[in-house]
Each structure stands twice: as structure tokens, then as C-alpha cells.
Specification:
The protein has 59 residues and is of the alpha+beta class. It has a domain of 33 residues. The longest helix has 7 residues. The chain is rod-shaped and about 65 Å long. It starts with 9 loop residues before the first helix and ends in a 6-residue tail after the last strand. Belongs to the bacterial ribosomal protein bL32 family. Keywords: Ribonucleoprotein, Ribosomal protein. It comes from Cloacimonas acidaminovorans (strain Evry). This is Large ribosomal subunit protein bL32.
Length: 59
């Protein structure tokens, strides 16, 4: 059986965990209505993408 010979130090443990971090999603604003939206997605409020009307949204 594989058993560690030495205890893993706090420094070595933390160095291994440096990349395990969550980043918040980037949020941009719609150019037409100013609502927050995800980049490269259709605005759910007004239905535009790249300043072009894609969807008709019921109010």
C-alpha cells in the first residue's frame, strides 16, 4: 500500500490549491437598454444582439 512517508506541509498543500479558485462571471451591459447581460449572448430584456433585433420580447 502507498503510504506517505512525511506529512504534507501547509505551504506545499496551499501551493497545490492555488488554482482552485472560482471567478465571478463577466457581465457586460446591453447597448440598447443598459441591462446587465452575459457577453456574446442575446439580451433577455430587449432581445437584441450586436445592436440587431433578434427576438421579439413580450412585456
Amino acid at each position: 500500500m502507498a503510504v506517505p512517508k512525511r506529512r504534507t506541509s501547509k505551504s506545499r498543500r496551499d501551493k497545490r490549491r492555488t488554482h482552485k479558485v472560482l471567478t465571478p462571471p463577466t457581465i457586460s451591459t446591453c447597448k440598447k437598454c443598459g441591462e446587465p447581460k452575459l457577453p456574446h449572448h442575446i439580451c433577455e430584456k430587449c432581445g437584441t444582439y450586436n445592436e440587431k433585433q433578434i427576438l421579439t420580447v413580450k412585456e
